Amino acid sequence: MAIRLLVNLARFAVTYVAATVLVFLFMRAIPGDPAQIALGVNATPELLAQTRAEFGTDRPLIVQYFDWALGLPMGDFGTSYVTRQDISPLVLDRVQVSLILVVLAMIVALLIAVPFGTLAAVKHRSPGGILVSGASQLGVAVPNFLAGILLVVVFAVGLGWFPANGWTAPAEDFGDFLSRVALPVLALASVQGAILTRYVRSAVMEVMSEDYLRTARAKGLGKMEALLKHGLRNASIPVLTVTSVQLAALIIGAVVIERVFVIPGLGSMLLDAVGNRDLLTVQSVVMVLVAITLIINLVVDVLYTVLDPRIRKAS
Amino acid sequence: MEMKFRFDEGALMRRSSKKFSLAAAVLAGALSLTACNAGAGSTASGEAAKDSVTVALTGEPVNLDFTTTAGAAIPQALMSNVYEGLVEIDQEGNIQPLLAESWELSEDRKTYTFKLREGATFSNGEPFTAEDVKFSIERVQSDEWVSSLKSKMDVVDSVNVLSDTEVEVVLKQPSNAWLFDMGTLVGAMFDPSGVEDLANTAIGTGPYTIEAWNRGQSIELAARDDYWGEAPGVETATLRYFADAVATTNALQSGDVDVVYNMQAPELLSSFEGDDKYQVLEGTSNGEIVLSMNNQEAPFDDVRVRQAVMHAIDRQAVVDTAWNGYGTVVGGPVPPTDPYYEDLNDVYPYDPAKARELLKEAGAENLDITFTVPTRPYATAVSEIVVSQLAEVGINAKIESAEFPAVWLDQVFTKHDYQMSVVLAVESRDVLAMFNNPDYYLGYDNSKIKDAAAEADAADEAGYAEGMKDVVRTIVDDAAANTLFIFPNIVVADANVTGIPANSVTEALDLTNIGWK
Amino acid sequence: MTTQPAAVVRSTRRRPPATLLVGAALVLLVVLAALVSFIWTPYNPEQAFPADRLQGSSAAHLMGTDRYGRDVFSGILYGARITLLVGLVAVGIALLVGTPLGILAGMRGGAVEEVSMRAADILLAFPALLVAIMFGAVFGASTTTAMLAIGIGSIPGFARVARSGTLQVMSTEYVLAAKASSQSAFRIARRHVLPNIAGMVVVQCSVSFAIAVLAEAALSFLGLGTPPPVPSWGRMLQESQQFLGTYPMLAVWPGLAIAVAVLGFNLLGDGLRDKFDPKLNGGR
């Protein structure tokens, strides 16, 4: 198993390094000279050259790459030549915001999905179950930004129950944090909950068809009872896998919601940096997002290896 | 309570009667609200005797250093609030004393002698003296300033310190434009010990200092207690930044912000107009929406084709459709607040038949062109209706969108790789910057206006206005570009906020008079 | 924008054919709208009629008009074309790249598997939205960059489905027999693997299509998708934001169109999954 873990780690490292090269090269292809954008209208050739030298964008690519890539693991993303600030603390702030938002949304989504998904599976022939299945299908079909806009129109602008947008750090003012985070979390969780409901439903249905559950029921246990006693643990493994994969997808997927609710997360930072042609910030944010995804995948792989050695066969 | 809003009366008169009554109703509503202050106080911002105000803006500064970084957001936040100049431009576009109490102009109109205000200090405690004036002006001319605007200081020959409170600026030739420019960001006064980290710290003589900057969210300005002048209306002014206009008005409606300044989606106003909890102000700005044509490339190198475009476009319909009727149609590239403004709508009235005729003359019937549109709300809105009107005279314009600023600057502005574009030209008194330079992206051949412009700048004030009017008329006659309309400065605010500068005459958003009833 | 690894959703029981029928009907509706737009739309969807702006539903304008006086119904019809185009190209890219990658990995094992799966891993770390933002920055926002980005983002899904299917097929007796009779790998892939995993891949197509529709809408909403004046549902939705208080129907129509398309492809995928042998729908 130790070897297995090492292999996982090595794969992670290879993927990570390949990703840094890809991201770096890709960013160099962006049209629009950062110096030109910093200077704006009427930049003269002399000013441009002076600014390029100041930014370091006149150095050879390979030098620029190692300068950046070697700093990354140390948490040193360099100094943005657009904001003239160290990128790392800014990114750290944004990562926190994004993670809080996404993790909260995922928790709420699970709180929706587990009971409803189980219900839909256990009572899959009854009107209630069909209703849940139908609702989850509809929920998946709604773009999350549409859910967000509608929530703002109804609950912020219409009823005035919540602020329409903005962000307060939980440490600063917890009450304000909750009122501001409520709508975006709901927007993300409603759609995510619908997706997870479908996974929970099929996982539970699969477990219910397993022999041990049939045996339990033959022994006189009720459907629900048998499921609670024997089935849920088994159903939880695929659901947890999906949850973690979705978590990674959601961190970048939340960018649209961050835009709608004016939340200073990684996604909006990325969009702003692209607009300002702040290359160093763009590639750093992209790498942080990619690294988060890779780490989540690594953790899932490791957990699989630890929890279920049989998985080796399939993976 | 005194009404501090200063509307541009001209702009107000030119609006349709419906708009006029609307604006009047808003004014009346704002006035009558003093009486029902308590009743309107349902939002968080409605409580009496507030000492803070939150203003919503779109577009956050990337850093605080306008001496090296382009973009209107930086001076918008800092000028008048943190930095001050010797003079300032008031709401009507007139030059007023600020750090200079008074000044004298020599007979040959080349030497300005400024008498400085005593007791003004920088926020780092250093006194403001004549040495700082010399330092600041010479710094613009040095390599420290990396900005296209620095050329505005080229006309300065020398700066001589006469005493602590007296400074003499000698120009190479007389210039009317220079003193005005001193009221814009190039005239900002810096302290020699306060320029080390301009990108992150701003030290000026203004009434506010930067208290905090939550990147991606807001800039907090705190009033200085050692400010030389009258204290500003509120202790804390917060500038909150949003990605789009919808988010700003949502925040206003849910009570998160008190003022939405320079609102970019006039369609949203209908829910505020007629609601006496809010006030809607339509001021003028110095921004012109310019439909630019590449004067040096076919087909727009032919003046007849450009004139056809002038006749083909119903500018009032453009304003009505694209910007909900907000904005002033003036027919030329000069906003009403400039001294050489005149209404030039009659030069090219909407006349599609004439347009077709001109195209026929030029042998340019069924013309196919590319229309490069920057990704800004005003540009998208304008482009769709412009394309539709061009189609009616036989010009088939294909829209190609260019990300703004990055791609647009690179492709259109720098490489001149375009046929037609549309952009909001925001700099104050920019008509010569746009047309008196054949290398500018418009590519207008300035041989006809070059000498006249230089003469006007060197003349006395009356001669300046008259001379510039001639220059502008020549530019319009040549159909160098189609100025669609003057961009309105739309402000939506809580009805109890006073002192909002409705007109945007320079880059600055002057917060000093903003207060509460 | 979220991904849905299709392989995890498994059904052990035949659902009523209703899923398949409803899904097919909704998809057909979208396809019809797109086809109709080629020969007829009530008005030119790009043509502005300023005099007729912001009208409600009427006989002249079934779904009313927008701020420029453009006919919303024409825009919805034309938008179906953009939606399908983006979906087709994106799924096409993912199918053509991802499936062979997965089959190769499943059949060869060893170094080949390692390399191709690492490639899929790298791609997996760049979700479609992230790729689209990067593409938008480099090449400018357009329908093409959106299609490419979504396509690239969908490759890993296909690779994983194809690989796990291939692994199962490879252990069946007839493949072992084919191997024993020293048939070429290509022949085995063509004769045995492809037909057996085709069902799963078709299901993956349908599910990916639904994801692509949502992704295109999100990109257009962010201004990274189809540029104006070509009507796209996501941008229509974004433009309608200003009118939510005054003309909410401007948001309802494109929202509904997106929901119909996504629902259709999801249901179709579910229905197809039940139709094909569920035993082959192995997980990761």
UniProtKB/TrEMBL annotation, chain A:
Residues 95-300 form the ABC transmembrane type-1 domain. It is a multi-pass membrane protein. SUPFAM superfamilies: MetI-like. Its main location: membrane. The chain crosses the membrane at residues 12-30, 99-122, 142-161, 181-200, 237-262, 282-307. The keyword Transmembrane applies. It is found in: Cell membrane. Keywords: Cell membrane, Membrane, Transmembrane, Transmembrane helix, Transport. Gene3D superfamilies: MetI-like. It comes from the Bacteria. GO terms for molecular function: dipeptide transmembrane transporter activity. GO terms for cellular component: plasma membrane. Belongs to the binding-protein-dependent transport system permease family. This is Dipeptide transport system permease. The lineage of its organism: Bacteria, Bacillati, Actinomycetota, Actinomycetes, Micrococcales.
Automatic annotation (TrEMBL), chain B:
Residues 1-40 form the signal peptide. GO terms for cellular component: ATP-binding cassette (ABC) transporter complex; periplasmic space. CDD domains: PBP2_NikA_DppA_OppA_like_6. GO terms for molecular function: peptide transmembrane transporter activity. Pfam families: SBP_bac_5. Keywords: Signal. It comes from the Bacteria. Residues 95-423 form the Solute-binding protein family domain. InterPro entries: Peptide/Ni-bd (IPR030678), SBP_5 (IPR039424), SBP_5_dom (IPR000914). This is Solute-binding protein family 5 domain-containing protein. It comes from Arthrobacter crystallopoietes BAB-32. The lineage of its organism: Bacteria, Bacillati, Actinomycetota, Actinomycetes, Micrococcales.
Automatic annotation (TrEMBL), chain C:
GO terms for biological process: transmembrane transport. Pfam families: BPD_transp_1. One of its GO terms (cellular component) is plasma membrane. SUPFAM superfamilies: MetI-like (SSF161098). The chain crosses the membrane at residues 20-40, 82-107, 119-139, 145-162, 197-224, 244-269. Residues 80-269 form the ABC transmembrane type-1 domain. Its main location: membrane. It is found in: Cell membrane. Keywords: Cell membrane, Membrane, Transmembrane, Transmembrane helix, Transport. It is a multi-pass membrane protein. PANTHER family: OLIGOPEPTIDE TRANSPORT SYSTEM PERMEASE PROTEIN APPC, PEPTIDE ABC TRANSPORTER PERMEASE PROTEIN. Belongs to the binding-protein-dependent transport system permease family. This is Dipeptide transport system permease. It comes from Arthrobacter crystallopoietes BAB-32.
